[in-house]
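Progress against Task 2.4 (sequence-to-structure conversion) is shown through the following example record, which the project officer requested during the mid-term review.
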Amino acid sequence: MNHSFGMKINFLGLKGILFPAFFVLISCCQSILAQPTAQSRKKNPYNWIITGGYVVVNDNEEKLPNLFDVQGSWNFAPYPSFLSINKFTKKGVSNEGVFTFTPYRSSVIVNDSVGVKGFLASANYNYKLSLNQFIKMSQDLDPYMAIGGGFTYRSIDEGSLSITANLTLGLNYWLSKNWGLQVQGIGKLALVPGIYKTRMDYLQYTAGLAYRTMPKKKNKRPKKRYEWTHERNNFKRKNT
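Structure tokens generated for the chain above:
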């Protein structure tokens, strides 16, 4: 099998799976946004979610056959290197900013090369959709999907910057009112430079501790039953 044919097979493997899912999720988000405005006035389940934890990057060109090859394909740091800030805008929909940093391990294969030194850093924006409004589950389980885009910088090869389209599938498991655990998997497809350059695609997995803030409850004052009882009597009493 020559190299060009191998690239086509790899494109059909990773991009052939993620691109259709990407457009399906876009359609789901459009249907949510097209719902009546009364939907947006419903109470948000959370206000903010901040997550920090560990990140794993699979930057091997043969990604699909090596999804769980920890020793040969996974790059990760022994310290937390993932931060996510998530803001809910309406029920089931939120906006997220994500920042990651991953050093390359010298024993790991990076695009058919071993002994690579350097790091991979990314900054991304995601539009997240909670699946609880479609799949009724326990309140402790909060599955979600997200679409987004971002920038990825690799320090190898004198530095390279790529623009990616991202598809995320994840789960929050809430241990208490405010604290929970989060795991997710992200497929990142390079759009620039060159959508067919599969060497710029990669997979990313994260796991971390999540903290959420709840929306403040508004104290509603009871309406006055009879407005006229509180009005001042402007009539003057006549002297007899």
